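Quick start: read one record
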Amino acid sequence: MSDVVKPAPLALTTSRPRAASATAAAAAAADARAAPPAAPSARARPTGGRWLLHPTAKPVLFALCLLPFAWLFYGAATQGLGPNPAEALIRGTGDWVLRGLCLTLAVTPLRQATGWHALARFRRMLGLFTFFYLVLHLLAYAWLDMGLDLQAIAKDIPKRPFALVGFAAFVLMLPLAATSFNRAIKALGAARWQALHRLVYVIVLLGLLHFFWMRASKRNFGEVAIYAAIVAVLLGWRVWRAWAARRASAAGRRPGAPVAG
């Protein structure tokens, strides 16, 4: 039973009030046992997506996020990445950075649209795996394209706009990855932590520009258009939500507006 009636405290009086109090408590407990269970309130009703709270949900997502890495590693080990494996590794890891950013940004709209609030549990993991693939992308460029020559890399990045934009996205993502744990939220404070992590909007735009410049040399803009549409929807939804919230707040401050009591 959800509502258990506790026995009334014993009063320091005669034995008759004590007996009456015990009898009343016993009767109340009996009534509580006999009464039908109360109907759950609307707030207590499940909103769906309870499977997202299953203990295996996070391990499954972890394994799914590792699949692209496993596929690229297997292809490199078995010489199955085509005639230019270096380019395939650089491009493959870069593609998964952009996909990871889109998936991370999709969590909040999906949570609002479906009522599956447990989706928020996976946003941190998606963000950290996005950073993981960004590190792999940078390492693939530095090792396979530049031979780990730091001096040559330092000269090459400012010279090529797409490399400069991609490196800027990496630098901006460093503090986000470094503060993606609960202790950092407590240290920074929720407001400052949220302001810092809004850099993800700048990062996804830089990533999209990097991808555009990479494909511009071959005039292949099909995939660029798809990612641009997805990013436009994800960022446009946030702009619309902020505008609607500001409009509602302004309406609540108008003279003569009803005051919530």
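Residues 222-252 form the longest helix (31 residues).
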